[in-house]
Amino acid sequence: QVQLVESGGGSVQAGGSLRLSCAVSAVSGRSFSTYAMGWFRQAPGAERSFVASHTWQGGITYLAEYTESVQGRFTISRDNAKNTVYLQMNSLKPEDTALYYCAAGRQRVTGGANDYWGRGTQVTVSS
């Protein structure tokens, strides 16, 4: 069973930065480097939504994708030696306030039940 543990959330003022981390363990004999990783978020009263993904394309190539509202402000990356994926969040806005979840998928992250999920880390941005 793949396990994911998020960290790095907190409270910041608008314009500030945070870096979320997601440590992945028990990858079931498959290299972490081949897993698709993603970040999703859920604001109060809203459904969980896609933020960013980092998908293995073969070799050492990955595809990073972002939802439009975070493009240019957030950066997803991974350290395969540490089995960890990161989300660097800059220029934070109050509308970024949400519970942020890390997800892992074998080929891609879908945001559904077939993904592996962490428990989330809270990000609160004040104006």
Question: How would you describe this structure to a colleague?
Answer:
With 127 residues, the protein is an all-beta fold. The chain is built from no helices and eleven strands. Strands 2, 4, 5, 6, 9, 10 and 11 form a seven-stranded mixed β-sheet that branches. It has a four-stranded antiparallel β-sheet with strand order 1-3-8-7, with no helix packed on it. The radius of gyration is 14 Å and the shape is globular. The termini are far apart.
Task: Outline the fold blueprint.
Blueprint: E1 3-7, E2 10-13, E3 18-25, E4 36-42, E5 49-58, E6 61-66, E7 74-79, E8 84-89, E9 98-105, E10 116-117, E11 121-126
Parallel strand pairs: 2-11
Antiparallel strand pairs: 1-3, 3-8, 4-5, 4-9, 5-6, 7-8, 9-10, 9-11
Properties at a glance:
127 residues; mainly beta; seven-stranded mixed beta sheet; four-stranded antiparallel beta sheet; 11 strands; 0% helix
Count of DSSP-assigned helices? 0
Q: Overall pLDDT, averaged?
A: 95
Shape: globular
Uncertain residue segments: none
Radius of gyration: 14 Å
Structural class: mainly beta
Strand content: over 45%
Terminal residue distance: 40 Å
Work out the helicity level.
Answer: under 10%
Main sheet attributes: strand count, strand direction, barrel closure = 7 strands, mixed
SSE series:
EEEEEEEEEEE
- What is the strand tally? 11
In short:
The chain is mainly β and 127 residues long. The protein has strands at 3-7, 10-13, 18-25, 36-42, 49-58, 61-66, 74-79, 84-89, 98-105, 116-117, 121-126.
